[in-house]
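Attaching the record inline, Q. Sequence:
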Amino acid sequence: MPDYPSINRTALIVKPLKPYWDWANSIEDGVPREQKNFNSTEMDTTVYLIPDLDPTEVNDHIEAMFPEIFEGELEAWWTNEKDWPKNRTFAMFKEWFDVSVSSLVYDTVEEDLVKE
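Structure, as predicted:
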């Protein structure tokens, strides 16, 4: 084990998949389509810290909070909600994003955490 303190959180690592990039490329933002070619290699993943849950509870927690994660990922790319996909479901979320779970989260920094 690392010599760092663990924190009482589980990390969700959210990576956009092809449907997300298809949507991002379809936005009418003034950039000519031939100049657009956004894909997952050009963007970082997002990490969401959730409570330190029993592994059997994690999927239920993801399903409960997927609307907020989905909106956060859309807003990170494009803030005009009228261009966001409508009727976002959990099935759609799973098609648009790969979610990895890490129950071991270590703090390697000596400074206090700052919430913004």
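The radius of gyration is 17 Å. The chain has three helices and three strands.

More tomorrow.
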